Amino acid sequence: MLCDRVRMDAYHSAVFRNPHHFRGKVVLDVGTGSGILAIWSAQAGARKVYAVEATNVAEHARELVRANGVADIVEVIQGTMEDIVLPEKGESCRFLNPCYICSFLNRCQTFEIDVIISEWMGYYLLRESMFDSVICARDRWLNPGGVMYPSHARMWLAPIRSGLGDKKMEDFEIAMNDWNHFVEDTQAYYGVNMNALTKAYRAEHEKFYLKSSIWNNLHPNQLIGQPAVVKEMDCLTATVEEIREVRAQVTLPINQDRTRLAALAGWFDVHFRGSKQNPAVEEVELNTAPDENGGTHWGQQVFLMTPAPRVNEGDSINVSFSMVRSKENHRLMDMDITYELHEASGRKLPAVATKIFLE
Ligand SMILES: C[S@@+](CC[C@H](N)C(=O)[O-])C[C@H]1O[C@@H](n2cnc3c(N)ncnc32)[C@H](O)[C@@H]1O
């Protein structure tokens, strides 16, 4: 992640092109990792930075903070965001700012966090569900009028061509062939018929090869139609409820002739815009769309359409998309994608439904 130039440049630009958000402010870095975002916040003029990290990497963050001469500003706290208590006691409350009664009675327990910065994005934005922890931090600690870095996020879906589907189908057939030989050999040499497990083996391998979302860094020329937004979020107001289930109906116009709809591809972008009350002077975007220069470590997620229908310029794909958290592991996602091909001639093909697992 530290070598992902697109990611690093975006966060660096967002902080240093908007020093008014940091100068003299109290910043909370949710999931500080190496501490890089906390260190930048301090270098941009923050008065105090709380850098919270769940794992032992917190030790390395402390070392880097010291080595970079910002130990008087950055305080690394090891613990999960949901459990820790910030040491800073504010002088104002949420109702009045400053609240003279609270400060006089020395009773106010509201904490003054002006900026929450975090790199919480997972594959296709929401895998790993780390944004839950950022929402928790925001609701507990962010001042009214505070800003989120990043401030907005979007999820995209687009039709693509790709050889990945054929390759995965080949791998699946090889796996099934191997299994059939294994069943024959086990019967011949050991006298046990394993065939009763063929259905389960097939289902498991079909899921692995054909129904699991595939990481890929696509070239923009693999896009065969217009992308559409399936989810937009304001990080200042988004709720866990809102991201638990993403549902969308989109139409994707095809703009290439005589090709196949091998898959739909998903990616995200985030923006650093500050807030309405306190906007960025310079907006910054972090985009993970297909990029001829190589893209990001997030790449894109490819959802195979098997079989891949033939499509032509002027056709359009109506997609009904839903993504929910997996019941077995809330950090993983299950998707239901139903698509309907509308040909330019006016003919509508029957809807095809597929399940995809983002694991
Ligand atoms: C994607 S890394 C980002 C690290 C660093 N901020 C950066 O930009 O390079 C996310 C970090 O957040 C930490 N993390 C995830 N959930 C957390 C939570 N609830 N509380 C504290 N840390 C968390 C992980 O251990 C990991 O180090």
TrEMBL record:
Record has ATP-binding as a keyword: no
Superkingdom per UniProt: Eukaryota
GO BP terms in the entry: methylation
GO terms, molecular function: histone methyltransferase activity; protein-arginine omega-N asymmetric methyltransferase activity
EC number(s) recorded for this UniProt protein: 2.1.1.319
Pfam families tied to this protein: PrmA, PRMT_C
Keywords: Methyltransferase, S-adenosyl-L-methionine, Transferase
A GO-annotated cellular component: nucleus
InterPro entries (alphabetical): Arg_MeTrfase (IPR025799), PRMT_dom (IPR055135), SAM-dependent_MTases_sf (IPR029063)
Enzyme class: transferase
Function, as annotated: Methylates (mono and asymmetric dimethylation) the guanidino nitrogens of arginyl residues in some proteins.
Subunit composition and interactions: Ring-like homodimer.
Protein name, entry field: Protein arginine N-methyltransferase PRMT10
